[in-house]
Amino acid sequence: MSTRRMLGFALFVLLLAGACIAPFQSIGLQQELRKTLQATAPAMPTMPALQEQGSAAPSVPQLSGRMAPSPDLEARLVQLYQEVSPGVVAIRVYGQSTDFGNPPQDMDFPTGQGSGFVYDKQGHIVTNYHVIDGGKRFEVVFNDGTKVWADVVGTDRGSDLAVLRVDVPEEKLVPLPVGDSDKVQVGQIVVALGNPFGLQGTMTWGIVSARGRILPSEQMTQTGGAFTMGDLIQTDAAINPGNSGGPLLNLDGEVIGVNRAIRTSGISRGNIGIGFAIASNWVRLIVPSLIEEGEFVYPYLGIEGQDDLPLAVVEKLGLPVPYGVYVVRVVPGSPADKAGLRGAQPTENPHTLPQGGDLIVAIDGHPVKTFDDLISYLVRNVRPGDETTLTIYRDGEKMDIVVRVGRR
Fold first, then answer.
1. CA angle at residue 260 from 254 to 218, to 5 degrees?
2. pLDDT per residue over 362-407, tens digit each?
3. Do 183 and 313 reside in the same domain of the chain?
4. CB 58 within 8 A of CB 51
5. Are residues 334 and 276 located together in one domain of the fold?
């Protein structure tokens, strides 16, 4: 929808200047005026060729500089679309502000749109929070053309997930199975279905490019930053504005992610081959809570920090290992502060990382190499009020600190 805020940590994360070169963009699609809705959508970009894993050389003919899929893969993609497309929906949102912050002028036409998928036979639809954020009415359009109004059941800014509910005959509902994202491997072929640029029922395919990425969430901290969401799947399957909330599937037809954002060049809103999906295990954790309680409660530590430090910085700070989460700041009065976690000492030079912070290298005995490791473990395994043990290095000495986790 709109370009979203600075990167923070779930416990909010401070990223140094220059750490993020290109902007990230949520991929719900807002439309300013009726003419935007009626205009011809841009052409879809061409997907890059893919070679079957383990092949020594292409075993299929070259077509216009691209490698064609093998007959078996092609047949499976065709079959997969037939199986899952009835469970993928377009979502039209009425009453949102436009990209320029102007209120909608005509409530007869949607001002935003995105995608979603059928979660169960009770009529629950999963989508992104940012797709419906600020909307007044929500229309769900099924693959066969059925159109129905939907109610909001629950929303979660932290994961950028939301659940709608529709009242339709049960035979209209084709729930998509939610898979285990922990089993997803880099190089695995994946398929994205959704509503890019309003082109309903669009299917694209690619591979899993990486796992364990982090992005800013829709939930803001008290200091004006954004909490961070981890465990995202990176893919080169073409996703564009309007794909938000649609499923990323494996070839078994299981949802392994919910398409959320793309990285852009800063000039165009279109796909450049770097997209991000919310891992399905977050869906399995959070969506039942949204259906039952209307919300999901996150654990909270209260730190700002940095991971993936350059070796020169590691040496300058005197850190014993080149991995982990370096604590730049501890929020006063937070659970981390009460437990005695130490942040770095303030410095007058904004271009250098201050010294003296603790380095978190494990949580409850599980290694912490990056922020994603810390965020994912904390959200999946720790509830507000629980105690968790952080293993840290402080002044070169390794020690454990027990933190009673709070509520975000």
1. 130
2. 999 999 999 889 988 998 899 999 999 999 999 999 999 999 999 9
3. no
4. yes
5. no
Do 281 and 309 fall into the same domain?
Answer: no
Domain stop point among 233, 267, 296: 296
What pTM value is reported for the model? 0.75
- Residues with catalytic function: 130, 160, 244
- Measured at the CA of 297, the angle between CA 166 and CA 193, to 5 degrees, comes to 40
**Residue 214: C-alpha distances to residues 15, 303, 344, 407 (Å):** 11, 16, 23, 21
Instruction: Domain of residue 375: give its range.
Output: 299-407
The predicted pLDDT at position 96 comes to 82
What pLDDT was estimated at residue 36?
A: 31
Q: What is the pLDDT of residue 361?
A: 97
Within a domain: residue 352?
A: yes
At CA 258, angle to CA 257 and CA 262, rounded to 5? 105
Q: Is the pLDDT at 27 greater than 70, yes or no?
A: no
CA distance 181 to 67: 28
| Same domain assignment for residues 313 and 264 | no
Distance, CA of 111 to CA of 194 (rounded, Å): 18
Flag whether pLDDT at 341 surpasses 70. yes
Same domain, 85 and 188: yes
Q: Which of 198, 351, 205, 227 is nearest to 301 (CA)?
A: 227
| Residue 151 and residue 196 in one domain | yes
| DSSP state for residue 353 in the 8-state scheme | P
DSSP letter, residue 377: H
Domain contains 43: no
Whose tokens are 């998509």? That residue is 176
375-399 as b/e, with b when 16 or more CB fall inside 10 Å?
bbbbbeebeeeeebebbbbbeeeee
Q: Residue 151: which residues within 8 A CB-CB, separation 6 or more?
A: 138, 164, 165
pLDDT on residue 47: 37
pLDDT band (50, 70, 90) for residue 151: very high
CATH of residue 250's domain is 2.40.10.120
Tell me whether residue 63 is in a domain. no
Task: Judge whether 27 lies within some domain.
Answer: yes
